[in-house]
Design a protein that fits this description.
The protein is α/β, with parallel strands linked by helices. It has ten helices and nine strands. The strands form two sheets. The protein has a six-stranded mixed β-sheet with strand order 2-1-3-6-5-7, sandwiched between helices. Strands 4-9-8 form a three-stranded mixed β-sheet.
């Protein structure tokens, strides 16, 4: 039996190569791949961060966002079209002068009557609606329809909202509900920490004209105010008395509240002894006048009183 010969070695061997050359080449490749992956990951991360920063910045302050929006709830079932038009014109004229916005929700859009609550409660969901529509606006001036802006030259920021100005006007260590509420405003609050600006008269707090700052606290405040439990209490003055209740008994709300002198935001067109008398009456140069109580007094006419003050405004 014959067996095949084993192959003979070549007489011309390949040039000398080191044993570790292929291993060394493989290591270098792996190292380069790792470095490339790190660089690529870093670039992707940096692009994502820059993209998010750019996107969030655009969301915070979109072009044309007004600093202030004036909210006036309209009862289009019980107010004439002419009266509504005059109310809107008063707000729009003022807003145009200062670059502010306006919002005129209808009371019929918030059917609180289905929960046996007075229609005046519609103010609270209307404000919540305003916050949602104008999510980037900083401040909202809630103003009763039975009120006029009498001095349109006044800028809200310089008149009230600038922190130093607000601190100067804040009523500190003052009973929240006059004359003798045991709960008083804080004496050490700073203007830049305030989210709710209210006035008071001889009977209590005045939600017919107030300012609220947009943010998570504002949403919490409005949701608390509109709590079904408070609406079921049948307060004599509905949402006004509910407001007094939550301000006095919820420290989270009291710590954000600034009470300011009534004349800055809420004068009256009549001498009403229970609401401050002559000290609360409108004088030339005052910012806002309210026809307080006109809608609930059968002997008064809101539209006629509005026309009287509007005529005075046009002659100023």
């Amino acid at each position: 039996m014959h067996f095949a010969y084993t192959p003979r070695k070549s007489s011309h061997p390949p040039p000398y190569t080191s044993r570790g050359s292929s291993r060394s080449l493989s290591y270098n490749q792996r190292r380069q791949l790792k470095i490339g992956a790190i660089i690529l990951s870093s670039l992707v991360f940096l692009l994502l961060v820059l993209s998010r920063l750019s996107h969030s910045g655009a969301e915070r302050i979109p072009p044309g966002t007004p600093e202030v929006v004036i909210v006036t709830l309209i009862d289009d079932e019980h107010m004439s079209k002419e009266y509504i038009s005059k109310i809107q014109e008063n707000r729009k004229d003022y807003a145009a002068r200062h670059g502010y916005g306006t919002f005129f929700p209808s009371i019929s859009s918030y059917p609180v009557a289905s929960t046996n609550s007075p229609p005046s409660w519609s103010l609270v969901p209307a404000l919540r609606h305003a916050l949602a529509l104008h999510a980037h606006t900083t401040y909202f001036l809630s103003l009763s329809p039975h009120a006029l802006i009498m001095n349109p030259s006044i800028n809200l920021h310089t008149h009230i909202l600038a922190p130093k100005t607000l601190e100067k006007h804040m009523l500190k260590d003052t009973p929240v509900v006059p004359p003798d509420s045991v709960i008083k405003t804080f004496g050490n609050l700073k203007g830049d920490r305030i989210d709710l600006v209210l006035t008071q008269d001889g009977e209590g707090l005045c939600p017919g004209s107030f300012i609220i700052k947009n943010g998570e606290w504002a949403k919490f405040f409005l949701d608390t105010w509109f709590d079904p439990l408070y609406r079921s209490y049948n307060f004599q003055k509905a949402e006004a008395h509910a407001l007094e209740h939550i301000v006095q008994w919820h420290p989270t709300i009291l710590t954000k509240l600034a009470l300011i002198p009534q004349r800055l935001l809420n004068t009256y067109n009549l001498d009403l002894a229970s609401r401050g008398g002559k000290e609360a009456m409108y004088k030339d140069g005052d910012f806002i006048v309210r026809l307080v109580g006109c809608e609930s007094d059968a002997n008064r006419n809101c539209e006629r009183e509005f026309d009287e003050m509007n005529s005075k405004l046009k002659h100023l």
